[in-house]
Amino acid sequence: MSQVYDCSLRDERAEGVRAAAAAVRSGRLVILPTDTVYGIGCDAFDAGAVRSLLSAKRRGPDMPVGVLVGSWSTIDGLVLGVPKSARALVEAFWPGDLSIVLPHAPSLSWDLGSTKGTVMLRMPLHSVALELLRETGPMAVSSANRSGLPPAATVDEAREQFGDEIGIYLDGGPSGDAVPSTIVDLTGEKPVLLREGAVSADAVSEVLGAQVETAG
């Protein structure tokens, strides 16, 4: 039987974050609010949990899962190196709606899908998500929806899709507009915009000091 925690209530929020953190540490999935839509998440370093996440969404490893972090400094231990362009984007847009793709540190034992040696990272602008991330460390998180269905904008919409398959639901109220994060690929010689979302291409270009290229 799943448990829903109302994070608008201080005591219930604290209890919910503790329960969700315990679930993540034990390899289980949780539903959490983010600044875009609700997410389904697990321990980024637990390959079995990530497979469970992909299975719950009804999708395969060809669509790899991104990683949410709870602080700027966390990325230093996750990637091969942090170029100046990445640092500038992090300082300008984190926490917020910008995801960056970088080569991941080869020493890390994780399996997020077919990432080709890269990882997509983001720090969300949502207090409940950040509280959980600071308890758990990096989490593999994808939008809370079955493949082909719309992402959940409320905890009730997430429960309609996943039911008791997920044990812990953190209710952070309705999400804002269902606008995806902007994705910038920093794995090559020049930054490439893979997806323009909540952060405009012009805003990214202004921070980088040059017009960002668009994929394709």
Largest sheet: 11 strands, mixed
CATH architecture descriptor: Alpha-Beta Complex
Structural class: alpha/beta
Strand-and-helix sequence, N→C? Answer: EHEEHEHEEHEHEEEHE
Q: What is the secondary structure topology, with strand pairs?
A:
Layout: E1 3-6, H1 10-25, E2 30-32, E3 39-43, H2 47-57, E4 66-68, H3 84-93, E5 98-103, E6 118-122, H4 127-136, E7 139-143, H5 155-162, E8 168-171, E9 182-185, E10 192-195, H6 201-208, E11 213-214
Parallel strand pairs: 1-8, 2-8, 4-6, 5-9, 10-11
Antiparallel strand pairs: 2-3, 3-7, 4-7, 5-6, 9-10
Helix pairs in contact: 1-4
Task: Report what the structure shows.
- The protein is an alpha/beta fold and 216 residues long.
- The chain has one domain (3-214): DHBP synthase, CATH 3.90.870.10.
- It is 29% helix and 21% strand.
- It has six helices and eleven strands.
- An eleven-stranded mixed sheet has the order 1-8-2-3-7-4-6-5-9-10-11, with helices on both faces.
- Strand 2 and strand 3 (39-43) form a beta hairpin.
- It is globular and about 50 Å long.
- The model has no long low-confidence stretch (mean pLDDT 93).
- Its EC number is 2.7.7.87.
- It catalyses: L-threonine + hydrogencarbonate + ATP = L-threonylcarbamoyladenylate + diphosphate + H2O.
- InterPro entries: DHBP_synth_RibB-like_a/b_dom (IPR017945), Sua5-like_dom (IPR006070), TC-AMP_synthase_SUA5 (IPR050156).
- It is an enzyme of class 2 (transferase).
- This is L-threonylcarbamoyladenylate synthase.
